[in-house]
Amino acid sequence: MSKLTEALIYEFSELLQNSDEYNLIIEAGEKAELQQFQVHSTILRARSSYFRRALSNNWAKKKNNMYIYTGAVNLNTEKGANVLQILIAADELELLELTNHGQEHLIKNESKWLQENAVKTMQTVSRHEPFGKLKENYFQMVGSNPDIIFNSNDFLSLEESVLVSLLQMEDLEMEEVEVWQSLIKWGIRNTPRLVGKKLVSWSAEDFAALEKTIHKCIPLIRYYDISGDDYFNYFIPYKKVIPKSVRKEIWAYHLMSIPQLPLDTLPPRARFTESQILKSRHVNIISSWINKKIATTHYKSPYTLNLIYRGSRDGFTANSFRNLCGNQSKTVVAAKITGSGIIVGGYNPTSWGGNQYSSQYYDYEQYLSAPEAFFFNLGDGKNPALAKVAHSTSRNQIAYARSYGPYFYMDLFFGDNCNTQKSCWHHLIYFQPEIFVTTGRAAFQVDELEVFQVIEK
What does DSSP say about strands 388-392 and 431-432: parallel, antiparallel, or unpaired? Predict the structure, then answer.
């Protein structure tokens, strides 16, 4: 903005602060909180199509020939809830610039608040067509981290139209049986006659009432993405709300030697299927760490993670790991700890030292420099807010060890047969900060161990 433009805007603002030439009074509030604003109708007409209509001859009423538009709106001083209210008012008054600015502010500066208040805010956003940016942002967040909606205390109060929109998402990172369970909970809560009533005592009328409540959602379930066991355990108890034709097709699909899908079958949701440990939201967090960004589940990852090693498939041995991963660089390691389900792992920007050893006697062949290396703890994987990362503080970060798999110096490493014995170790020495609950040297066992090569899209 030029100095001349700034000067003109300032002088114009000063002019409008003088109410001598005002021709309009706007009253806002009620009773003791009632306020009056003396304004200029010409400016309001120019800035807002709402006021253009409101001040037309067909709408406005003049009183004594006297028919707030200037001043800065500093959203940085407002909390997320207040900014949303300002957005609602801006939409009502058709102030397009303020509507766009407010959305951008919330997306950029209030990400945590948006996630913590996802249900209520998303319902508000869905009622206002101009809030397209916020709506798109929410769908991106929910796609990679559906817990912010489906595990929210407010989920059961979600409006039907919003739930339908969520179930239509093809990139919803949830197991389909979990989607079904959430739908049933929502349906029962929103069917008054079923609240507090045990399933064993339901009548035909009760099932009919539930079907009516979730009628629009039933066709949006990907029934063929559900295992036979899950279908038997979680769908059969509510089979009366599923159309008979669909039930017949599902049984045929699971019983036929060569399953065939109906032509009108919904496509599977686009989940991150390369891993039995990581989900899309975890990939986004790890990618943000690789690029030295603030960790967030809706970070748009510029990487694809290609599976190159899986313990349950290739063997939980150092040789298997070395043969498949030894010469690979830019890799992500992920493991799920037995018992706790905690997900740990790390990123190695360099190679793992090849698969040949020149020494016959020493387990540790060499240490490799990888200053960009880090390891992480994703907790149980369900709450991304708990994700933590530790970066290297030493020149040597990656070890090339004979009887070990991934080896982040002496701080985190995975040994032979780590699925049947506690041959994995955490001992904080050269990576900081401490991101494990335990302190000191700790051994553990894993259910699964995977390694992915990081490839730019």
Answer: antiparallel
